[in-house]
Amino acid sequence: MRMRHPDGTLVHLAYCTNVHTAEDLDGVLAQLGRYAGPVRERLGVPTLGVGLWLARDVATTLVDDAAALDRLGDELAACGLEVVTLNGFPYRGFGCDVVKRKVYTPDWSDPARLAYTLDLARVLARLLPDDVTGGTVSTLPLGWRTPWFHDRQEAAAVQLATLAEELAKLDATTGRAVRVGFEPEPGCVVETTDDAAAQLDGVDGDWLGVCLDSCHLAVAHEDPDAALARLDAAGLPVVKLQASCALEAADPGDAQTREALAGFAEPRFLHQTREPAAAGLRSVDDLDEALWGRRALPGHRPWRIHFHVPLHADPVPPLTSTRDVLTATLRALLGGPAARVEHVEVETYTWDVLPGGRRTDDDLVDGIAAELDWTRRQLRDLGLSEVAS
After folding, report:
1. CA 226, 229, 231: angle at the middle one, nearest 5?
2. Strands 385-387 and 2-4
3. What are the C-alpha distances in Å from 88 to residues 44, 92, 94, 218, 268?
4. What is the predicted pLDDT for the residue at 386?
5. Burial level of 323, CB count in 10 A (0-12/13-18/19+)?
6. What Å distances lie between residue 59 and 91, 260, 285, CA to CA?
7. For 14-61, how does the pLDDT look when each residue is reduced to its tens digit (9 = 90+)?
8. Does the CA dihedral 376-379-381-383 come out positive or negative?
9. Which pLDDT belongs to residue 32?
10. Quick one: which of 50, 66, 160, 367 is 20 to 30 A from 244 by CA?
11. Domain residue spans in the chain?
């Protein structure tokens, strides 16, 4: 969906297709008709934005085979869909039974990550609508924090410089400017906006910036206004917002709360958990560790958990979500006199692992449509107006 900010900026609202996890072209094409098209119909809009996740092998196919890219473009058009952003965080295997730390490989010290990201940029330059000249690709925050020694940092710095140079060349040859946003995430080299300012110091801000994920921001207990001020001071633009909510437990020491949390301790994804302490945050890398591990968190103060929960609906009490952080982030980026981001992507990829799971494809379509409608209403409340595509 397209929204117009009062300053005239066109803001694109999409949902991320990493919730579907197809890893070949036929699967990607099928999911557009099976899910994305029906989501558009539920919302009653002529055109819906999708933030495509294209696994490594799909990206290779699309770069090497012009006919394959045409097939994708034709299916997008047939379903009433458009693409201005790609999710380049997972490399492959996001639909595996166990993902956990594998999602952080290859990291930005590995040439394979650079090659994949540039392939995505080339694909996106071809997929952008005729009246849109700028796209974005989100990527991982350099890598998982361990091991991340000086040699990896140096290798990553060289690759980021090459990335910026190649993106500039792509713009010069195609007239399509694609920017890459590094997404701070708990447990990673770039966990917070402070880390982004330090670790991405000196990158070319014309091409590289930050993809701000409001779930991750909440888990790190960052204030959105303060976070944006830090990024401004570092000269790092926010190129994309991933609209997401974290799971929150007000009283994790309570028996009923712990029982509810246990339902979210699942084996597929990593659910980093944070508890405020006198000096900073107590941190563990997964929810089961927080509940039962050798370094279990004390549970004296509220927990925030990296588990993306639906934007529009609260978890079953006594659990809640960090929707207030998301609304504050939207307000900070789009509630002022000037729009500070043009791409907003709803990214709840965890529908299949929510307690109870989802029952049917219709349930998923209805859920994604409800999230997008909720976000659309938030943007309207901030003064944005819907644009007929």
Report:
1. 115
2. antiparallel
3. 29, 10, 11, 22, 19
4. 96
5. buried
6. 10, 39, 30
7. 999 999 989 999 999 999 999 999 999 999 999 999 999 999 999 999
8. negative
9. 97
10. 160
11. 2-251+309-387
pLDDT of 358 > 70? The answer is: no
Under 8 Å between Cβ of 334 and 342: no
Q: Within 13 A of 212's CA, how many CA atoms are on the CB side?
A: 30
364 close to 358: Cβ distance less than 8 angstroms: yes
Q: Do 218 and 247 touch, CB atoms closer than 8 A?
A: no
Taking the domain 2-251+309-387, which CATH number applies? 3.20.20.150
Could you tell me the two tokens for 215? 């779930």
**Exposed / middle / buried, residue 73 (Cβ in 10 Å: 0-12, 13-18, 19+):** middle
Q: Residue 278: is it exposed, middle or buried by C-beta count within 10 angstroms (0-12/13-18/19+)? A: exposed
Query: Residues 13-38, buried b or exposed e (16+ Cβ, 10 A)?
Result: bbbbbbbbbbbebeebbebbebbbbb
> If you write DSSP's letter for every residue of 244-271 in order, what string do you get?
-EEEEES-TTSHHHHHHHHTT--SSS--
- pLDDT tens readout for residues 66-112: 999 999 999 999 999 999 999 999 999 999 999 999 999 999 999 99
Q: What is the pLDDT of residue 389?
A: 66
The counts of H helices and E strands in the chain are 13, 16
